[in-house]
Amino acid sequence: MNGEKITLYVTGSIAAYKAVSLLRLCQKAGADVRVVMTEAATRFVTPQTFAALSGHSVLTDASAAHLETIAHVELAQWGTYHVVAPASADFIAKSAAGIADSVALTTYLAARGPKLVVPAMNDGMWDNPATRRNITQLRQDGQQVLDPATGLLAEGYAAKGRMAEPEVIMTALQQLQGQPQDWAGKHLLVTAGGTQEDLDPVRYLSNRSSGKMGYALANAASQRGAQVTLLSANVNLPTPTGVKVIPVRTAADLKDQLQQLFPTVDGLLMAAAVSDFRPVQVAEHKLKKTADGEEITLRFQQNPDLLKLVAAHKRPNQVVVGFAAETHDWRQNALHKLAAKQADYIVLNDVSNPAIGFNSDDNQVTIFGADGFQEQTPVETKDAIADHILTVINPKDH
Ligand code: CTP
Q1: Beta-strand (E) ranges in 166-314?
Q2: Which keywords does UniProt give here (predicted)?
Q3: What is the pLDDT of residues 198-243, one digit of tens each?
Q4: Is 270 in the pocket of ligand 1 (CB under 6 A)?
Q5: Torsion (CA) 93, 96, 97, 103 in degrees, nearest 10
């Protein structure tokens, strides 16, 4: 942790005293630590303790009231890592909802770097469905949450809820630090989800893409230092930390955004399932049944191949990655798409297997490169696959 800057958020829990040891351990490892406390935390340990040990003034609601600078933004930007220890149920709930009604929460909301949350609370609070939901939300948002330890609680009985020991927190921090920043300075455009093509004002044609792969890619790229813009077609997933999401609905919306943004980025990861066809006519009014048992015929026209369209204008220093969803003749189809779309890579996805296809959290892909590269990943989480893809396509590695 040598030379790293850590913003430590101390919140209202009896375990606040352990944050003092954590601060000491971080300093021993060479890190510079600044502390922000919630009002409730100051009732367990005084700000003066942390100020004396950290060598920096401590930000609290009371101290912020006397400052002329925007102290919370400053502290949010200063820290490379953001550690909440102990994290009370209240802080977890509020930060999961994006609430910023204290200087600690405002700082945390403004912070962009990797976040580590170390809960400490009564076992009933930890088990409560509301807390479970909030923890899931934080994890989905890309924050790392340590499980509390099982042991003697302040209430006098043993249960799950004790804050992880400072040594355990240090190990987690060091792992977090191990995250390579190999995409720093690069801007990636990611597309995710499935487009909708209108039939009439209430009906549309779409596909079964969940958007999970695209969101996993956007999240992993952001964690690895990239600036990420995500064109999101009808996806119901939480926004990954640090990622700019632009919602799109139809293939035409996606085309407009792609044409505008592609020239400005270093790479495109085209994970969206674009509808190949759209109705020739979109009915102005809702289509009505006219007779019992009638048959109707809908006529479709082709949408442009968006990947092909933008890849045709690819600069040599841009990397373009397409995704091929196939149910049969996988390899042959993937290689054909690689050439036809002028992509640098095609990530082949076998969607005939429900265990690893649409809406699943797991996947297995084969990556084909225009340079002859070929590699099949094991069946693993979409997050792990995303990391794998980002390693393979990084121009620095070639
Ligand atoms: N794609 C696109 N525009 C389209 C169709 C697909 O940009 N109109 C992109 C997808 O985002 C994906 C890649 O092309 O990155 C392959 O998509 P896929 O649906 O597997 O292939 P298609 O080209 O649509 O071919 P087919 O449906 O015949 O398999």
Answers
A1: 187-193, 197-198, 204-205, 227-233, 244-248, 267-270, 277-279, 300-302
A2: Decarboxylase, Flavoprotein, FMN, Ligase, Lyase, Magnesium, Metal-binding, Multifunctional enzyme
A3: 999 999 999 999 999 999 999 899 878 788 999 999 999 988 867 8
A4: yes
A5: 80
Query: Which are the contacts of 207, defined by CB distance < 8 A and separation ≥ 6?
Result: 194, 195, 273, 275
pTM more than 0.85: no
State the closest ligand 1 atom to the C-alpha of 304, by its place in the atom list counted from 1.
Answer: 8
CA-309 nearest atom, ligand 1? 7
354-360: long-range contacts, CB 8 A cutoff, minimum separation 24: 355/379, 357/325, 358/208, 358/209, 358/210, 359/208, 359/210, 359/212, 360/212
Q: Where is pLDDT greater, at 91 or 398?
A: 91
Q: Report whether 300 belongs to an annotated binding site.
A: no
Catalytic residue from among 2, 122, 128, 207? 207
> For the chain, which domains are there?
5-178 (3.40.50.1950), 187-397 (3.40.50.10300)
Residues 303-324: tens digit of each pLDDT:
999 999 999 999 999 999 999 9
The verdict on the CB of residue 311 being under 6 Å from ligand 1 is: no
Catalytic residue list contains 207: yes
Given a contact cutoff of 8 angstroms between Cβ atoms, the answer to whether 182 and 394 are in contact is: yes
Q: Ligand 1 test: best mutation among 270, 302, 333, most atoms within 8 Å of CB?
A: 270
Strand partners, 205: 197
* φ, ψ (nearest 5 deg) of residue 380: -150, 180
